[in-house]
Automatic annotation (TrEMBL):
This is AraC family transcriptional regulator. Keywords: DNA-binding, Transcription, Transcription regulation. It comes from Paenibacillus lycopersici. It comes from the Bacteria. GO terms for molecular function: DNA-binding transcription factor activity; sequence-specific DNA binding.
Length: 297
């Protein structure tokens, strides 16, 4: 009878190193998974000995940290540090799905506080590169091989860089983007509603009153990607959602995200994510920390 594997996410960083030998250097990732919360799910007054990042895929929840409560919804990224008392529960409505990544740097210093400056709520990132980086990290974490471990570390560092918000930079960026933010959100929503159609440049110019080149520059400044790149990643995200939550065939999924040629869709998906859609679905883990319990109001 095999021994029960330890819950690495609940251990002190130094206690995880033997089990994480595939990671040759920091950051060491002790957990990366997607969790689909059952009804009345939640926990409170928990502490971890490592850092944790959470990304909300769908639904709403309540995140409590050190005596403060925050409503979290689709696209939100929140963060807690070692030994910070925290809790999380799903709120009624849509099913609550989230990604959790637990990690540490062993005894190596890392300037997280320079990036987060005491923050726990790091912003809303649905439809941006961070969303897809979280999903890729989870999928690759379930796969063996040093190349997948390196990819996980690279994705985690990229996420940390994306969600970092030094106060001075955030203020400067807000001033420059304020006048166009409504029009850029129109573009984003327009693209998301038409994933089965090609990008209509004249229509986007008419919708915003901006030239295409200027629109590309402003969209990249606001969302960290171009409209075309956003369309591709939005299609990938929708394909993942359809594959996980519906019984549609591979061809039907491809058609709903704008690909009449199944092979072209498969080639694009693998190029952008490093795996097939089938491989992505089979690589997901849906178990949470062992130290959880149901919580009812």
């Amino acid at each position: 009878m095999s021994a029960i594997e330890p819950d690495l996410a609940a251990l002190h960083p130094q206690e995880t190193l033997d089990a994480l030998r595939d990671f040759r250097f920091p950051p060491y990732i002790s957990l990366a998974h997607i969790f689909h919360a059952p009804d009345d799910w939640g926990f409170s007054n928990r502490t971890l000995k490592q850092y944790a990042l959470n990304y909300v895929i769908d639904g709403k929840g309540e995140f409590a940290i050190e005596g403060s409560a925050h409503q979290v919804a689709k696209g939100d990224v929140f963060f807690y540090r070692p030994y910070e008392t925290h809790g999380l529960r799903a709120l009624p409505g849509r099913p609550f799905l989230s990604i959790t990544v637990v990690f540490h740097f062993a005894d190596m210093p890392f300037p997280l506080e320079d990036a987060f400056a005491g923050l726990h709520m790091l912003g809303r990132f649905n439809g941006r590169a961070v969303e897809h980086q979280f999903a890729e990290l989870v999928a690759k974490y379930r796969l063996p091989g040093v190349e997948n471990r390196l990819a996980c570390q690279s994705l985690l560092l990229a996420i940390l860089a994306r969600v970092a918000r030094p106060a001075g930079n955030a203020a400067a960026g807000a001033t420059g983007q304020r006048s166009n933010v409504a029009r850029l959100m129109q573009v984003k929503n327009h693209i998301e509603r038409r994933l089965d159609q090609p990008l209509d440049v004249p229509e986007l110019e008419r919708l915003t009153g901006l030239t295409w080149n200027y629109l590309i520059a402003e969209f990249r400044r606001a969302f960290g990607t171009t409209p075309m790149q956003f369309l591709i990643w939005a299609r990938i995200s929708k394909a993942k959602e359809l594959a996980l939550q519906t019984a549609l065939s591979y061809g039907e999924i491809a058609e709903q995200v704008g690909y009449n040629d199944v092979h072209a869709f498969g080639k694009m998906f693998k190029k952008k994510t490093g795996m097939s859609l089938t491989g992505f679905c089979s690589a997901l883990c849906v178990t949470d920390h062992r130290n959880q319990w149901p919580m009812k109001d």
